[in-house]
Design brief:
two-stranded antiparallel sheet; alpha/beta; seven-stranded mixed sheet; 8 helices; about 30% helix; about 270 residues
């Protein structure tokens, strides 16, 4: 996929950006960074689980690479965790390299900011204490079962009022939503997370925005079926991740300038 054409060796990338040190992870020279851990069928659907999922370094390396290679300025993250530290590290790198140009030439009010949303306040506090971050603003929000065009889904009550150029969807868990619609909730172990927030805010997003959905294929298909704008979509089974990129002509001079600087001619060739 074009998003990772320049990534190359995972181990070499980690040498350039050793964010794993902030996570307290030791990486042996012989480690296979692309090896996936095997999980039990109920690993991600245990409502009593209060421990963080183990780090998937390959996912985190790719996530970091997306931020640096696309010169991302503003991130909206659903679900805090190890990814929050990684996104913060990548934004710090972008700020070091691109602050002058972004400040002088682009209209990015929330430049080099990551806004991370979670409905679990105690987990937000754990993440804050586990590793310091410089670019992250945490938002605690209740999560409710509701509908989008009569389709049952969940919505956060409060979202950051920003214009992100990268959105990382890795939350919430399916057991936290309050309420039900005609007896239907997401809290059954055989149900699935079903976020509707990005559908509601779709028409505020700028051309060039990238959405990364970690797992959550049912939710990704729900979004794909209900998006109204020209989104490219690709699912990479090896990563178990979905990628949506908003491919539209720029909305104006500032959006065009941002696309040219951050994404280059390759973006316009994909229109």
């Amino acid at each position: 996929m074009h998003l990772f054409n320049g990534l190359g060796s995972y181990s070499q990338y980690l040498e350039i950006y050793p964010f794993h040190q902030k996570l307290g992870l030791e990486v042996l020279p012989s480690a296979d960074l692309e090896e996936k851990a095997k999980k039990s069928p109920y690993f991600s659907v245990d409502p009593g689980n209060e421990e963080a999922f183990p780090a998937e370094l390959d996912d985190l390396i790719r996530l970091h690479y997306l931020v640096t290679s696309r010169k991302v300025t503003t991130i909206l993250e659903f679900g805090v965790g190890k990814s929050t530290v990684v996104l913060d590290d990548a934004l710090q790198a972008n700020k070091t390299q691109h602050l002058e140009f972004v400040s002088e030439h682009l209209r990015r009010t929330n430049a080099f900011e990551c806004h991370s949303v979670d409905n679990n306040l105690s987990w937000i506090n754990v993440c804050k204490e586990s590793a310091p971050t410089e670019t992250v603003t945490y938002t605690h929000s209740e999560l409710n079962v509701s509908t989008f065009n009569d389709r049952i889904c969940t919505f956060y009550e409060l979202l950051p009022n920003i214009a992100p150029d990268l959105i990382y969807l890795d939350g919430p868990d399916q057991f936290s939503a309050q309420g039900s619609i005609r007896g239907i909730t997401t809290t059954h172990p055989d149900r699935l997370p079903m976020v509707g927030d990005l559908l509601a805010m779709e028409h505020f997003l700028l051309p060039g925005t990238l959405i990364v959905v970690d797992g959550r294929s049912a939710n990704a298909r729900f979004m794909k079926a209900n998006f109204q704008r020209n989104w490219s979509h690709e699912y990479i089974a090896e990563y178990d991740q979905h990628f949506f990129e908003l491919l539209e002509p720029p909305l104006g001079v500032f959006n065009k300038r941002q696309i040219e600087f951050c994404l280059g001619d390759d973006y316009f060739s994909r229109l």
